[in-house]
Amino acid sequence: MDSAVLLDILGNENRRRILRLLSHKPCYVTEISEYLGVSPKAVIDHLRKLEEAGLVESRTDDQRRKYFNISRNLRLEVDVSPYEFDMKSAYPASPSLDVSTCQYLSLNVQYGNQPDGREAEDDTETVSEAEAGEIATLAEELNCLEDLKSELSLAQRWVHGRITNVLDQLGEEVDENGQNRIRAEILAALAAGAETVRDVSRETDAPEHIVERHLTSMSERGIVKDNGGNWTLSG
């Protein structure tokens, strides 16, 4: 799903309220209508747009009444700073992802067993001692993951702020008036391994002639080096 389209769909408050309600339980149109205080016709229109976006889906119960639920897990991220405007949507990574391969991230999380596919039992039936223990373990894991989610959010905010600070400092070092913010992005692209003007242009999303002009200017000041069309940092 295109992030811009998704952001536009979620820009409507009633659609956000519908998703908030459906995150607690599946609902019929009449339930949603009462919750929002709007007509069923308006609810159906919102649900149609959410269905087209792949965010909700409908099913039919034993009485052939249609109800709706959220259809998938999705994360939408928006970054706005003096140096960046970026939107991206992502689906959850595979449970088998090995996070130990991350270069900067280290997680200490113990994972419980995955669901074994058993059908849900009657919620009035007494569970066994082993099942009660499994429920307690899953509840504890959920609590740990919620804490981890909060810590990762805090870490993301710290990184976002630090990136802006470093770009500010970098911009001041390479440009006295601090207006050519693109230079900081060009230097970051070189540090990441980009070498040619085309590589840097792709990384910074800036036209090649603009990139080349700034590289030439910084080369004259000894900040970068031109090695036959391959650019590197001087330091």
From TrEMBL:
<dbReference type="Pfam" id="PF01022">
    <property type="entry name" value="HTH_5"/>
</dbReference>
<dbReference type="InterPro" id="IPR056346">
    <property type="entry name" value="HTH_Cmi2_C"/>
</dbReference>
<dbReference type="GO" id="GO:0003677">
    <property type="term" value="F:DNA binding"/>
</dbReference>
<keyword id="KW-0805">Transcription regulation</keyword>
<dbReference type="InterPro" id="IPR001845">
    <property type="entry name" value="HTH_ArsR_DNA-bd_dom"/>
</dbReference>
<dbReference type="InterPro" id="IPR011991">
    <property type="entry name" value="ArsR-like_HTH"/>
</dbReference>
<dbReference type="GO" id="GO:0003700">
    <property type="term" value="F:DNA-binding transcription factor activity"/>
</dbReference>
<dbReference type="Pfam" id="PF24270">
    <property type="entry name" value="HTH_Cmi2_C"/>
</dbReference>
<keyword id="KW-0804">Transcription</keyword>
<feature type="domain" description="HTH arsR-type">
    <location>
        <begin position="1"/>
        <end position="89"/>
    </location>
</feature>
<keyword id="KW-0238">DNA-binding</keyword>
<dbReference type="InterPro" id="IPR051081">
    <property type="entry name" value="HTH_MetalResp_TranReg"/>
</dbReference>
<protein>
    <submittedName>
        <fullName>ArsR family transcriptional regulator</fullName>
    </submittedName>
</protein>
<dbReference type="InterPro" id="IPR036388">
    <property type="entry name" value="WH-like_DNA-bd_sf"/>
</dbReference>
<dbReference type="InterPro" id="IPR036390">
    <property type="entry name" value="WH_DNA-bd_sf"/>
</dbReference>
